[in-house]
């Protein structure tokens, strides 16, 4: 079982326009609404591939009700904890070349009682050997230790703990020694306070986390693929070039695919291959991309030891 936790979920609306012109009235060519938030997206992707998963999230107001209805429609097992505040709504505006402008509401901090209810719901669904994934942003004013507290509870229950967040929440989580962390290059650079311009820079930064905390790092490099670093070594992988429909949710698909490869196929390198295949399929999928099984092509992913990778300078994501 994999349980995902999203403390600041969202109802995500995607609009496609011919071109984004500031100050002008424009017609959307396409619109789609999805349940959103990193942990929710990870659960949606895993559920679509038949992996036992439950997503735990706070839900409040009409947007919260709509988000939960979307999970029900998609057949995603979930525990929605009622909260006083309205669940936020986010908007993504996508242009034909894949350029995405995202407007996110900040969200509202959860109360201590609401946080306890969420933590209790998670621990009730996992046991030894299972995975708990704490993912996504936290609302402004929320204690940055919240994910670390859930992670410690998960570890006490015998579960493995994965983290995908940023900023102060990522920094606090790292001190609690998760089993797996999945930042992108920008998030890793921010939390470590160093510039990461080359693949060697990223490998060195990930090595520092592995050696200092004993964890596994999967770092998203945007158009340059992804990097896996653990105590056994460092590997770089890339997927085939595809027509980019929307980049929102690609990192979540990477994490979901990695957990699939790790838990179903059996190794971290299998996880890297699956993760990149899922992320590649996600960016070619409209909306907050959940990669359909028939669009995932793991055999098209190229993996090599990071030291042998031809990539040097990294592109901007």
SS-derived structural category:
alpha/beta
Q: Class, according to the CATH hierarchy?
A: Alpha Beta
Radius of gyration: 18 Å
Order of helices and strands: EEEHEHEEEHEHEHEHHEEEHHE
- Biggest sheet architecture: 10 strands, mixed
Number of domains in the coordinates?
A: 1
GO molecular function: 1-phosphofructokinase activity; ATP binding
Family: Belongs to the carbohydrate kinase PfkB family.
Function: Catalyzes the ATP-dependent phosphorylation of fructose-l-phosphate to fructose-l,6-bisphosphate.
Enzyme class: transferase
Structural write-up:
This protein is an alpha/beta fold and 317 residues long. It has a single domain, classed as Ribokinase (UDP-N-acetylmuramoyl-L-alanine:D-glutamate ligase). The protein is built from 9 helices and 14 strands. It has helices at residues 38-48, 61-74, 112-125, 146-156, 167-175, 185-192, 199-213, 250-265, 268-283; strands at residues 2-5, 10-16, 30-36, 53-59, 78-82, 88-94, 100-103, 131-135, 160-164, 180-181, 216-220, 226-230, 233-238, 302-305. The strands form 2 sheets. Strands 5-4-1-8-9-10-11-12-13-14 form a 10-stranded mixed β-sheet, with helices on both faces. A 4-stranded mixed β-sheet has the order 3-2-6-7. Helix 5 links the parallel strand 9 (160-164) and strand 10 (180-181). The longest helix is centred in the last third of the chain and has 16 residues, at 250-265.
